[in-house]
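Q: Here's a chain of 192 amino acids. Please give me its 3D structure as tokens.
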Amino acid sequence: MNQNAIDNETQEKLDAFIKQEEGDSNDYKGLLAKFITLVAVGMSLFHLYAAYSIVPTQQLRVIHVALVLFLVFLSFPIAARFKNRLMIWDVLFAIGSVAIAYYILSGGDDFADRNTAPNSTDVLVGIGLILLILESVRRTNGMVLVTVTVLFLLYALFDNYLPAPWTHKGYGLDRLVGLYVHDPRRNLRDRS
């Protein structure tokens, strides 16, 4: 066995370990790679600007989540067999993330005032945001974290049916979605 065979073997093991721990990211070339890089650089510049200037918390959180979701859907394939191919559903999920952010930001103070009693459109947008976040977590971290997150969501919805030490009043779907839509980073904080 020569040194190159050992190095190649070690590299393959390292690549498999990284893929297992961090997810299987795309390795694009050309214009798409440049576009994704520009979005990531733009996100970094926005955060540097937010550190220097005053950006309202509601706007900062929504823009942050939208950009992260946008980058995740373009950078991580839905399944390993689609690696290095931009699929239509990846583009739709990425655009959906931006559309949800636009809906939240365009709602302004009226949207923020409805956090405890969202209207039906707010609930649908909130469910969409939660599903997009769960899918992005699945792509980047796997099913274990998604399962834990879904169990916590189910606990919030149905804990009033549990026995005494674990019960509380419970949340309705509209209240649960209202909390997550109005503070979307709450979902991402669970990942840290």
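Q: Can you summarize the key feature?
A: The helical segments are 3-22, 31-52, 57-75, 88-113, 120-141, 143-158, 173-182, 185-189.
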